[in-house]
Structures are given as C-alpha cells and as structure tokens.
Prior knowledge:
- 77% of the residues lie in helices and 0% in strands.
- It is an all-alpha fold.
- The protein has one domain (7-340): ABC transporter involved in vitamin B12 uptake, BtuC (Orthogonal Bundle).
- α8 packs antiparallel against α11.
- The two termini are 37 Å apart.
Amino acid sequence: MTMRPNPASRAAAVTAALMIVVGLLALGSLGVGPVKLSPLAVIDALIGRGGEVQQIIVQQIRLPRAILALAIGGILGLSGAALQGLLRNPLASPSLFGAPQSAAFGAVLIIALGWADVRSYALPVAGITMAFVSVFVLLTVAGRSASLLLLILAGLAISSLAGAATALVMNLSNNPFASLEIAFWLLGSLEDRSFRHVALALPFIVVGAALLFSQRAAFRALSLGEETAQSLGVDVARLRLIVIAGTALGVGGAVSVSGTIGFIGLVAPHLVRPLIGHDPARLLIPSALAGAALLLAADIAVRIIPSTTDIKVGVLTSIIGVPFFLYLIMRERRALGGGVA
Length: 341
C-alpha cells in the first residue's frame, strides 16, 4: 500500500519547485535581449567580474526589469489567490474592486497633463494615490460591513468609471504624442524601467503582500462559510477591508509602474491549485511564485518573438488569459449544470 504525501509536504515540494523555476526564469531574463548572454556571463556580470558593457547591460538595464517582473507577477498572483479565497469564487481577480483601473487612470492623467513621462516618479505616486482613492470610494459607497455582493457591484462600478475616465482623458488630450504614449503604456510593459521604479513600487508591493499573507489563517476559516468563520473568531468585515487595502496597495503600485498587465492574478492560482489542493492558506505563496514565473516567462517571450515592433507584455498575457478565462467560465457553467441536474 503506497502512502500519499500529506498536503503540507506536497505544498512544500511544489513551492520549492516553483522557486527553482522562478530562479531559472530570472536568470534567463537577464540573459535574453539584443545582446544574448550565457548564464555564466550573467552571473559574472552580476558579481562584477564580467566586462564593463556586460555589467551595464545586466545590472542597470535587465536587472530592474527582472525584479519588477518577479515582484509584479508575485503580487498579482498573491492578490488573485487572496481574492478567490475571500470571495470563495475561482473567477475572482485583482481587477474586481477597481484598484488596477484606478491606478491606470491616475498615471494616465499625469501623462496627459504633461507633468511626467513614463519614466517619472510621478506616475507610481499618482497610480498608488488613485488606487487608495478607489478603495476609499468603494468603502464609502458600500460601507465597511457591506456584503460581498455590494462590494463586487461597487467595485465593478468604480472599475467602469475609471476605464471611462481614462478614455476621456485620451480623447481630450491635445497632444497626439501624449495620447500615443498613453495608449502604449496602457498595453503593459516592463521595458525601459529602472531602479527608480523598483525603489518606489517595491515597498508598496511588499507591504500589500504582507497584509494579504497575514490573513492566511482567516482564509482557511472562511472556506467553511462566513458564519462558521465568525464563530471561530474571524472578523469578516475586517478581513475584507485588509484584503481590499492590501490588493489596492500592492496592485496599485505594480500597475502604476508597468501599465495594465491582465489575467496573471486569475490564472496563477488555477495553475497551482490542482497540485496544492483547495486550502486557501497553502495556496498563497505558490500562487505568488506562479504569478512571478508567468510574468517572467511572458517578458522573456516578448523579447524573443520575431516582430518588427516591440510586443507589449500586457498584450501577450491577455492573449493567453482570455481563452483561459472563457474556459473557466465554461467549466463553472458545466459544474452548475451538473449540480442542478
């Protein structure tokens, strides 16, 4: 009789494997580009033993891009797992409460007004500020102790308003070059990012991730139902507030640096759930690692796909993510149909 590994051991093994994958993809990200570098050349450049040109390419151009891909993919995957645990809905994603759309609007407004370009500190500041404004409006409209349905409806309204406001800003912009810059920025990219963007976005991403991870025990209790979770001492209203704030903080900082990168938060938890199981507490770290791996892989892919112009990473994630989302909807429909039958 063979013994199956217990869920904790299986989760640890999957997490270790994902860490290795993320490390290899990060190494590959540092070596891929117009100037291809071998893994040994990348390592030499990182520790300061390579040539001066190789050190500049790796340390100043590609390293910030790889760090942002890892951090942004990680917070998107973690936020997706946290929201799916909060709502107990496998179709939940970070865009549900309007924070990414609001962050994009804040950054777009700054570009349209001519106050900054895509490499300015003002962009992340405006994006994070608007993400928090969206959370404040959400909680004001729905209330601190609102039901999940009210929160979702308010989030959809905010997200639609932010999208419409972004389109209006582009429509009213008198500078065609600014409109073009906005359009390309909205597609989502990690190109031309520097350590300035890392230094500004990373603290918000880390704090947001810490808030979400701190609620892992509450997610496990919530999987038994809200009434059961409350009987176990979980303050469900406080949990919602922390998860929404953590998502706004982390995803707002990420979006304002990279532009809109969709579907990572939706796809990542589904990739690891068959391996980890349905325990939302054990799902958080593997989902973050899967999100980081997905974005690193997508960012590598946009650099090696032959094209006359640069492909934006947000475009690639959407091309992959939309069919996956439709598949999830069809699967849920079949499950509901089977339940009714």
